[in-house]
Amino acid sequence: MKNIVFVGGGLASTLALPIVIQHLELDARYVTCQLPNEHPDNYRLIECVERRFGITIEDIGLGKSPLDVFREQNFLGNSMFDNCSRVLKREQSYSFMKREYPDGANLFLGIGATEARRSIAIRENWQTMGYSCEFPLIERPYIGNTSLMALCEGLFGFIPELYKKGFKHSNCHGACIKAGTKQWRLLLNTYPDVYAQWEQCERDVRASTGKNIGILRKTKNGVKRYVTLEEFRVSEIPDEDEGESEHACNSCESM
């Protein structure tokens, strides 16, 4: 039985998961689906972990960003339909496993205790394809971002900037179609150039489809409507939690 570890780029799946795997003394193969639009600290963390623990983390990604997927499919992802994660993470992972391990393998994913409920569907999904899943971080609820930031600084001399700036995850340079207005406000105020790239992509897809769509939504008097990133940038729309999850990007983080 082969042991395959899916590294995501964040502290939990990139730093904590390899530590646990080595503690368990498992012979494992490490893989990741890197995106070209990540914060530089993501790539830096992966390189530091490789050197520190003497492992190689293989990139099996497409080399495309979510913005590439939205434009190619002429479809803007949203909180209900994450075509970016499906194409860039899940489909790439499935294809890799079917090609490299058609007879089955044991998978290790970096989902923590706060997202334990997600492990049920993920395990069932992989089992239908003949693979078993393990979530060793769920069994270690004391491993959280605070302790991991301290550990990362102690081992490598830095804390990934997104965590220092207040982001809950390190995917897509702080952007996420599943995030709510609080995270997008933080992105706008912290990395306006990244925000502008997503705003332009949203504008392009709206123009090409001719549809009144957007990444953000707002509810007023029980009626939901889309709020474009351009409108959000220039208006005084209050920040809300609608559609937002503290761990919205964990599917990217762990796959």
Describe this structure in words.
- The protein has helices at 11-23, 40-53, 66-73, 83-100, 118-127, 145-156, 161-164, 181-190, 192-209, 229-234, 250-254, and strands at 3-7, 29-32, 57-59, 106-109, 132-134, 216-220, 223-227.
- It contains eleven helices and seven strands.
- A five-stranded parallel beta sheet has the order 3-2-1-4-5, sandwiched between helices. The protein has a two-stranded antiparallel sheet with strand order 6-7.
- Helices cover 46% and strands 11% of the residues.
- Helix 2 links the parallel strand 2 (29-32) and strand 3 (57-59).
- It has 255 residues and is an alpha/beta fold.
- The chain has one domain: 3-Layer(aba) Sandwich (Rossmann fold), CATH 3.40.50.
Give the SSE map.
Elements: E1 3-7, H1 11-23, E2 29-32, H2 40-53, E3 57-59, H3 66-73, H4 83-100, E4 106-109, H5 118-127, E5 132-134, H6 145-156, H7 161-164, H8 181-190, H9 192-209, E6 216-220, E7 223-227, H10 229-234, H11 250-254
Parallel strand pairs: 1-2, 1-4, 2-3, 4-5
Antiparallel strand pairs: 6-7
Mean pLDDT: 91
Low-confidence stretches: 241-248
User: What oligomeric arrangement do these chains adopt?
Assistant: single chain
CATH class: Alpha Beta
What is the H/E string? Answer: EHEHEHHEHEHHHHEEHH
Estimated radius of gyration: 18 Å
Task: State the helical fraction.
Answer: 40-55%
Largest sheet: 5 strands, parallel
Separation of the first and last Cα atoms: 20 Å
Count of helical regions: 11
CATH-assigned fold name: Rossmann fold
